Amino acid sequence: MISKTEITAKNEAFLRRITELSGVSITRCEQCGICSVACPLVSGMDISPAEMMRTVQLGQEEVTSTKTIWVCASCFTCTVRCPRGLDPSKVAEALRQIELRKAIDYMDISTIPAEEMRQLPQIALVSAFRKLTG
Amino acid sequence: MKIPYYPGCSLKTTGKNLEVSAIAAAKTLGIEMVEIPKWNCCGTVFSLTEDDLMHHVAPVRNLLRVQEMSGNGSVDTPNKMVTLCSMCFNTMKSAAGRVSRNAEDLVKINSFMNLEEDYKGKVQVLHLLEIIRDMGFDKVKEKVSRPLNGLSVAPYYGCMLLRPADIGIDDPEDPTIGKDLFEALGADVVDNPYKKVCCGAFHTVNDKSLVADLGYEILTRAQKAGGEAITTSCPLCAFNLDNRQKEISAAHPEFKQMPVFYFSQLMALAFGLGEEECMFEGNYVDPRPLLKSKNLL
Amino acid sequence: MEDKKDIMQIIADANKSVTTGIDSADIEHWVQIHIMGRAYKVPAGLTIMQAMEYAGYKFITSAGCRAGFCGACATMYRKKGEYQLQTAMACQTRVEDGMYLVQIPFAPAQEAKYDVTKESYAASTLLEHYPEIARCVACNTCTKACPQDLEVMDYIQDALRGDYASAAERSFDCIMCGLCAIRCPAEITQFNVGMLARRMYGRCGMAEPEQAKKQLAVIAEGKYEEDFKRLLAADLAELQQRYAEREREAD
Ligand code: SF4
Ligand code: SF4
Ligand code: SF4
Ligand code: SF4
Ligand code: SF4
Ligand code: SF4
Ligand code: FES
């Protein structure tokens, strides 16, 4: 079924917010899909990076409840491949920040098994806590 | 050359073998790495949102320590510093770039750190591999006393050494720095098509099967290309590709475990340095049987 | 006005004992402070703790040794016209004109359960019990907050990289006041991390001190057996008497 998507003021405000937070001109995304092809983690995502860009273009706040934004590992593969010079990794970070700043953590650091804690390098913990806790 | 050196937390623990071998190998090349006093964790990942300055305080504080060292004559490379961990390198260089380009950010961070002197925005962050490349791989060759003949190495770069393009030390799509280095050491270098693919990074904390899946791809592609070992410059890549072979083996019983070296361990070995400098006992998959089979130990 | 003065007088009188017997007639200099938003005129030169008692507050918590050691009397204040939020120990800090202050009697803290004799002397032990140290953003707020002038950020950084010796030494003078933990944006309980680092360092890192070794040998030889037996056999009246007659340092 084809339906016309109506963009409300709320949708526009969300797009503006993410554009400001990420510094990415999200409306310039031409939906070529190269980022999705390049992304090494796409198979674990529920929507692809290009779909994430599209939902933000449409100002759909529900994008903050996708798995995608948390699965993105900020590996910058999309960053170097996007033909329009956009940076989906920054958009994903902005979306994570929207959640983390509401004090909604993606992981509970007290649930990491002791056996894992004994072997994980600090670099893993520091980066995970920065990306997944607020 | 006497240059300020930023280790990072993991190089004091799980990545001790990176630190020890790199300091020794660099010394052989005439590079003296002087540990920055009172450094703090850089935060590992560069914060990507426009308004988040708080998370840049940690790297900038380290840059300030380098500025102080430049002023007090304890090094002879004013306003330069070297890192070994790819993630520290990326975070520190990105933060240095952001505050040097953006005067307003610099003022805000300086006024937040009001007990410190002002950071002037001048420090250049380098990775040891770039310094070696700029010296010339001929210089490396000159120091080789135990060429790694017959050892097939697949260099692995991961993300933070290459991307984003303005931060990376090599062509983000076609890096050669590892190939050039290991060839200079006398090794056979094979090309792993997955050399730039992310290892899953911090997901090792919350989703280790995702990391094991990526690791399986990265390692088996290296093996298919003929690699007997792979190399890295990052204690997180090392953990994900080396220690997580336990999880990979559990998921894929046919998987043959392979050694993961830090680039610097192979340098130390080829330079004829001893076991204390190579620190192979710090690796999860023991590389010594392989090295013995090649008469390198 | 008249009435009000009388009440203040009564309060002041009631607190004379703890404000070292000050008589308001003798006081030349006064300062105005605000305790939890209410203004009080108090004699200059008093500590925050004495000033609060002078103003009529009674410490049923938030006070202990009154000598800067126990860490019970944490205070936060701002001074008029200054943006900085300051911290202090109420028993050690003199009131200043224009202070807006509040006591912080307790810092809700994360306290791990462990048996130091069983923990491994590895960096991961600190992280296992206090993983949140990996959230430190190096903002230095804790160091600024510490009334003991400790390098709190640096000892947390030491802990993160598993440097027990440095973490133990840098945190040695911690009085567990909790002010660092209250201020930390990463929600770290610094003082408990320092405590674990010192315990582990004391057990596994430090050389055993000669003095303690000698004294333990003396105890093992039974030098104090007799005294202990006498104490254990004493009745309440004797204990009370002995307490009253004990040797004391001058206050
Ligand atoms: S940065 Fe995120 S979205 Fe982009 S390629 Fe990497 S994982 Fe995928
Ligand atoms: S690669 Fe760039 S332009 Fe193409 S879909 Fe992704 S973000 Fe949009
Ligand atoms: S990136 Fe790592 S190793 Fe590098 S300092 Fe930060 S946590 Fe520590
Ligand atoms: S490869 Fe893995 S650990 Fe290494 S830089 Fe990329 S994400 Fe990081
Ligand atoms: S206040 Fe917390 S986050 Fe800031 S430096 Fe201290 S421990 Fe780190
Ligand atoms: S370290 Fe924290 S708890 Fe200890 S004295 Fe300083 S502020 Fe108080
Ligand atoms: S009452 Fe003990 S430190 Fe102030």
TrEMBL record, chain A:
It holds the Pfam family Fer4_17. GO terms for cellular component: plasma membrane. The keyword Kinase does not apply. SUPFAM superfamilies: alpha-helical ferredoxin. InterPro entries: 4Fe4S_Fe-S-bd, 4Fe4S_Fe_S_CS, HdrC_iron-sulfur_subunit, Helical_ferredxn. PANTHER family: IRON-SULFUR-BINDING OXIDOREDUCTASE FADF-RELATED, IRON-SULFUR-BINDING OXIDOREDUCTASE FADF-RELATED-RELATED. This is Heterodisulfide reductase.
TrEMBL record, chain B:
Keywords: Oxidoreductase. GO terms for molecular function: oxidoreductase activity. Residues 5-93, 153-242 form the Cysteine-rich domain. Pfam families: CCG. This is Heterodisulfide reductase, subunit B. It comes from candidate division WOR-3 bacterium.
